[in-house]
Design a protein that fits this description.
- This protein has 167 residues and is mostly helical.
- The chain is built from eight helices and five strands, in the order αββααβααββααα.
- β4 and β5 form a beta hairpin.
- α2 crosses α6 and α7 packs antiparallel against α8.
- The longest helix is centred in the last third of the chain and has 19 residues.
- The radius of gyration is 18 Å and the shape is elongated.
Length: 167
């Protein structure tokens, strides 16, 4: 009675490591099965997969972890300090790694599983989380402009999470 998400993540992890290869219409182990290093928990698998991301993709994911529902690419990239091309390349990397997925809105993305978001969020130290929440709140106000009232709940939540900062 295993966890399908765990199995999926382990298989993606092994494929990314090169321990599983796709050839002749099927998958096979590229190393002796006894030598496969299979993580014991879902969080360990996710942490290993995140560890293979490039610096820009990891920064994008760190800022994305602070969104509650959908992740606005432009805001997450801005908070991550990525200019447009670097941000788009980072987005391509996390989409290929199947950590984020597209939504009907071409500017918004979702985590493939809540545990990916929780693992990222938990890895951020408290001072960084507080500052990122504030940066996201401010970036949301700028991005939404006159339409900010429509997103007031999310903006307020971001400000609330950054209440330890002055201002």
């Amino acid at each position: 009675s295993g966890n399908p998400f765990f199995i999926r993540e382990v298989l993606l992890h092994l494929a990314e490591e090169g321990a599983l290869v796709h050839a002749r219409g099927g998958w096979s182990a590229a190393v002796a099965v006894e030598t496969l290093r299979i993580p014991e928990t879902v969080r360990q698998v996710i942490e290993r997969r995140l560890g293979r991301l490039g610096d820009a993709a990891r920064r994008l994911m760190d800022s994305a972890a602070l969104f509650t529902e959908t992740v606005r690419f432009d805001i997450a990239a801005q908070v991550a300090g990525l200019e447009e091309t670097a941000g788009l390349n980072a987005l391509d990397e996390v989409l290929a790694a199947q950590l984020l997925k597209s939504t009907p809105d071409p500017h918004a993305y979702e985590f493939t599983h809540a545990l990916v978001r929780h693992t990222l969020y938990g890895a951020l130290n408290a001072p960084r989380r507080v500052r990122l929440h504030r940066q996201i709140a401010e970036a949301m106000e700028r991005a939404y402009g006159a339409d900010a009232e429509r997103y007031a709940g999310e903006i307020a939540r971001q400000y609330y999470q950054s209440a330890a900062l002055p201002g």
